């Protein structure tokens, strides 16, 4: 995932490295840096040509990190919904974008927190619902958080503060 340059903990780290690579005229490494951080090749080219003065901003860096992580994870259904929610929060809040970009905070970690909540908050499913679903087990439980709870868990995971 972050094979050549490692996980960057902030937009400043990415932009400082990009600036140093540009001083060295190492355009190929700038392109690799951009790719590792989920930035479009066109952005790297614009940076190299001088059309933009920084490789990315907080939002671009956060969304890029999420894209790289999601590409590796290949999430579906509710996990994809949670990831899209995180992206939307990054677009609305620079604080959230910086939190998502920080080292050690990952989509897998976030989903892990949601899964932990799910297991701790399972409830029994009514027999009629089980029958309607074609479930022949003696017991069936479910523990998926509602969106309000999921939002709180996601915010807590990334920023340390509830919504």
Main sheet record: 2 strands, antiparallel
Indicate the mean pLDDT: 94
Number of helices: 9
The helix-strand sequence is: HHHHHHHEHEH
Q: In percent, how helical is the residue content?
A: 55-70%
Structural class: mainly alpha
Low-confidence stretches: none
Number of strands: 2
- So what's the oligomer here? single chain
Radius of gyration: 20 Å
Strand content: under 5%
Record the strand order, biggest sheet. 1-2
Spatial gap, N to C terminus: 30 Å
Principal-axes geometry comes out as elongated
Explain this structure to me?
Helices cover 64% and strands 2% of the residues. It is mainly α and 163 residues long. Helix 1 packs antiparallel against helix 2 and helix 2 runs antiparallel to helix 3. The model has no long low-confidence stretch (mean pLDDT 94).
Could you list some keywords that capture this structure?
single chain, 163 residues, mainly alpha, two-stranded antiparallel sheet, 64% helix, 2% strand
Short characterization:
By secondary structure, the chain is mainly alpha-helical.
Topology, please?
Blueprint: H1 11-23, H2 27-36, H3 41-49, H4 58-73, H5 77-92, H6 94-101, H7 107-120, E1 123-124, H8 127-132, E2 141-142, H9 147-159
Antiparallel strand pairs: 1-2
Helix pairs in contact: 1-2, 2-3, 4-5, 4-6, 5-6, 7-9
């Amino acid at each position: 995932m972050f094979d050549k340059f490692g996980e960057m903990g902030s937009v400043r780290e990415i932009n400082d490295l990009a600036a140093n690579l540009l001083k060295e005229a190492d355009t190929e490494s700038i392109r690799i840096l951009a790719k590792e951080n989920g930035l479009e090749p066109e952005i790297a080219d614009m940076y190299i040509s001088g059309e933009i003065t920084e490789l990315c901003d907080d939002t671009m860096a956060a969304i890029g990190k999420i894209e790289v992580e999601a590409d590796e994870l290949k999430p579906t259904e509710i996990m994809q919904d949670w990831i899209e929610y995180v992206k939307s929060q990054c677009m609305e809040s620079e604080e959230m974008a910086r939190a998502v970009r920080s080292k050690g905070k990952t989509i897998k970690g976030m989903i892990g927190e949601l899964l932990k909540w799910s297991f701790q908050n399972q409830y029994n499913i009514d027999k009629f619902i089980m029958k309607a679903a074609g479930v022949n087990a003696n017991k069936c439980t479910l523990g998926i958080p509602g969106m309000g709870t999921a939002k709180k868990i996601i915010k807590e995971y990334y920023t340390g503060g509830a919504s």
